[in-house]
Fold this protein.
Amino acid sequence: MVKNMKEKLLKTFAEVFGDTEGVRLYFAPGRVNLIGEHTDYNGGHVFPCALTIGTYGAVRKREDNKLRFYSMNFSGLGVIETSLEDLTPCKEAGWTNYPKGVIWAFAEKGMKLPCGMDVLLNGNIPNGSGLSSSASVEVLTGFVLKDLFGFSVSNKELALIGQFSENQFNGVNCGIMDQFAIAMGKEGHAIFLDTADLSYEYAPVKLAGAKIVIACSNKKRGLGDSKYNERRSECEEALRELQAVVDVKALGDLDEAAFEANCGAIADEVRVRRARHAVYENRRTIKAVEALKQNDIALFGRLMNESHVSLRDDYEVTGIELDTLVEEAWKVDGVIGSRMTGAGFGGCTVSLVKDEAIDAFIGQVGKAYQEKIGYAADFYVVEIGGGPARLMGSEEKES
Ligand code: GLA
């Protein structure tokens, strides 16, 4: 599998860029969040893990300042070219705004590239699925720059630089979860991250007799980003209102009782629900990780279900596609828990499903989804993988 991928990357690199002299191969994963949704910009906890699917890259230095990008996923676009002198976001640059943004962010942090690069990417994360293909490209790019040019940056810093580039260069006001999960991924483990101070802990995910199944809604996302930013501002406003009566830095500082005692300070009913989700979801995440440590997978599953209800009713980021996938999943025997994952408004769900129920799960949920929504969902049984890595490349000393 990996061997085939390497051959495919090298063959295409030679076709696009002439030969494979001096090429290095890299990988960065995608991610799925098990629980803790829309908490990462509210100073709360998240519990994501890296996947074994992700983005592969074949890269080499150039002798001039050109940056030449090619994606096997968008081969129709051909080579997209820019240079180190022109690191500004633009519509025509399409997907290359992600790697460009990271190169720009490195320069902002004092790490200017001494020369350009030829970059070929090939991702096997399903398109637009909400499994963080953009964060995967950002972390991959950061890892490549560190490895190819010898910059001294930790993987945690790569996550922060990825988020910085997404916020400042690509204009998406995302939190730290996706880049952190990808840069810090560890095989077989999910990451219990406190976004208030970036302290984290790896928790082994041992699902004896069960697997993580992702269902992709295939809904085209449109309004997603603006709604995402809208939810952020609603939470920020609710926090300001709460701060008039209680001394907190973030919604994540409140427990359920403190929230209920003070939520009267929030003037608008919609904002009360938004803030309630942020507070309760954070607490659920802490409880879920504790349940996993106690091997109480059934409780972990129930908390996943509660998370979905809260995202549906209080945070309102699900929609008929994700609700159908989850509500049909709940009907299947052998489903331990199921919820939407990621930003919402489309994208995918994550379910814990007993091994013997996986076929029935895919059959039943797939059929009901097709009937109700009118097009098919896709299903992926996934494994938890590690962080970014170099797969092949010369060991020569950097000049
Ligand atoms: C997107 C963002 C993350 C996080 C999730 C919701 O994936 O990139 O930072 O806010 O949505 O939990």
